[in-house]
Amino acid sequence: MDNNNIPDTIVDANSVGALAQVRRHRLLQICGVSALGLLISVLIARGIAASIFLTGLVSLVGAFLLAYKYKIQASSFVLLSAMSAMLFALSLVGAGLFDIAIIGYPCLLIFAALLGGVGLFSTLITLTLVQCSVLVWLNLEGYVSPSTPRVSWEHLIFVQIIFLITGFGVYVLVRDIKQLMTSLQNENDKVQLSRAQIQHLAHHDPLTQLPNRLHGELLFERLLEQSKSNNTQLAMLFLDLDNFKPVNDALGHGAGDVLLEELAQRLSDRLGEGQHLIRFGGDEFLVLTPCGGDREHNDALTDFVSSLLEECAREFEVLQNRVVISSSIGIAVAPKDGEHFKELCRKADIAMYQAKNDGRNTYSFYSPEQDELSEERFRLLQKLRSAVNARGFDLHYQPIVDLNSGQPLVIEALLRWPQKEGGMIGPDIFIPLAETAGVINQLGSWVIEQACLFCAGQRQSGLPDLRVAVNISALQFNDGLLQGHIEDALLQAGLPPEALEIELTESLFINDSSGIVAQLAALSKMGITIAIDDFGSGYSNLAYLRRFNASTLKIDRSFIHPLTVDDNDVPLVQAMITMARSLGMSTVAEGIEDAATRQILLEMGCDFGQGYYWSRPLSAGELGEHLKLLAKTK
Predict the structure, then answer these.
(1) I need a labelling partner for 4 at 20 to 30 A (CA). Which of 90, 141, 190, 610 fits?
(2) What is the pTM of this model?
């Protein structure tokens, strides 16, 4: 059964029922008024005319009862046929075609138009024509001789009754027509209102009531033509919120909607004449604004953009929570950067991402160089996906040694991406791409697996206490499967959990997630150690060191290099080492390249060192022999 037709069926049934009710009501009215007229006629008529009126009255009572019992078709038939027969009989016994009863036929036609459709009306008018023709034929053939009565007050009453009944029928008919016209006008108004609402919904965002992307394109085309005629330019600002997702994650999408509504109102209040705000989608907005000739020196435009950034950065009150966000804005200018809406959107979007790369909460003008970087990024992204699927990466390893004994205790796994044409793409380039492309989990799992296998091999080759350190991206914690991947890798390699160390960057501290804390606690409980990599170069929140169960602190190379040439960093490095020791953590100094630096760190109480002084990062094949040489060094 097709349920889609049920609503239409119900509507049709309701319409038919309403129409039937109206027809019944009209029948009762007509029968009542006509019966009253015939009752008066019966009282004043004499002879055969009285009998005819009485017969008609009885028929009308029958029609009334049928209508009362909802026998509408039968009632209509009885009413019209009885009245038609009555008029014919009165004309037949009276003056024939010139009898006053003839003027009752138009009243019957009006009743037929009120009570029935085309079929009933056509049948009655045909019957009327036939009856009139029969009257004339009977008179002409001499079967009936018309008798012209003398004018009397009774005749006047009969005429008045016919006029009153006819007038009633005309009044009812006209009133129904007026009601129908009013109803049609109301329906037309509803249709026009619905059409306007549909048009509004098609061109506006339902949440913020701002013009949507479709309407924005029409606005752009119109404003571009105006700017050309005024010899000015049209700037497109692509605004994207920097940290909107945490609002949805923490407070729910309802809170995110409230924030977007308030932001839309704030930005709208900043607009002047000729400026338009558009909801592009999600947490993205477009602003179209006229601007001067030289975009780089258009102070009015940059002041306007700065005011939008300020509005976005103001505190929001969302569901009794105070929320602070920021935004990044990319700017493309027509016609210099293009004259098509989609082209300008793409270029403003590229400029917006440049603003994000520049530190967020700022703006950037589009330049062709950004386009080239975007195309290069896209090509690199496609190559990266293929390389991940084909496992086209290499792992190099760099030893971490005990500063006192010089023995290699840990090797750090460093991912490299070799190219067919020669050379390498550095992890500082492809790791962010992998995170953006959503392949970091797949790539990270492969690194853990290969590092565990290599470490297990080295332990079997004469370095039984060797451990391996693997860098972990914050995104690898998102799906909650990291612990399972690590357990599988350790099991496959036959490596004990104590032989694995995971290195976390300070950026992980920004994501203050109880889920990450729980996963790190579970890994630590297994026996896996946790190291904080590049400490001092980023977030540097000491309160998190213990919360994340870190056992090792790796001091960033930027603090180690200057130790032999500049004393300014010595107190800072000493403070890091002392702080780590007070927390029960060991320290690793990164970037040691000479014996003098090693000696300074050793005197400071640093535990371990890593750098070119002992070894550059080596491939798996090169590292084995090198580790054995280091192990023999005292």
Answers:
(1) 190
(2) 0.55
